[in-house]
Amino acid sequence: MCSAAKHVPEVAKGFHDTREYKELPARVCEIKKHLQNARKSLEDNKKAVDKSGDDCLQQLKSLRDKLNTIIDRLEKQTVTEIEKGKSSVGVKIQTDVDKIDDVTERLQKLSDDLNAAGENNEATSYIGCITVDDVIWKAKVLLQEINNNDDYEMSFQPFTGITEYLSSRDVLGEVICEGGEKPLQGPYRLFKVVKHVLNNVKVVDDEDICNIHAICRLASG
Questions:
Q1: Are 66 and 105 in contact (CB under 8 A)?
Q2: If DSSP codes are grouped into helix, strand and coil, which group holds residue 199?
Q3: What is the pLDDT of residue 182?
Q4: What are the DSSP calls for 154-177, one per residue?
Q5: DSSP 219
């Protein structure tokens, strides 16, 4: 496949005296130094990422603690509201119970007085009956008021918006990872090709294939 071949010893003759050979150890040392610096930089980056990751975990724990504090506060206030509701309804019910007990006690006392008076004292019996009728009327009015009232009950309707929102999320926050590839700095910097143009530089009297592979124009011109 080769158009020509040369013996290596002939090509390498005098190579030890060339600048390329003499500068090779320094070039190796330099590239090794850059490699070590790059390795150290990567290790430092890893340590920094580990630390920032631990900071993220701490922030997550802090967020959870804040959420727990908020939930505890809301729960305590809700319990207070429930107790207030129980107390308020209990007072209303106890008021009706006391009215029933009062009417029942008055009816019992009037009945006992009538029985004690017996049939010998019609005037006392007459007054007693009128009084009992008045208390019975008040008792009927009380029963009507109580029966017309709806049964007391309590219920708790939690705000579902919070749980629905949290249930729709996959995580509690956005995890942002920055960094990555960037152009190398220093003697090994890479240049990005903005555009390229193909040109045919062949002339009529060329005897061999043109050996100009590329011409680069850097950012500096």
A1: no
A2: coil
A3: 61
A4: ------HHHHHHHHT-SSSS----
A5: T
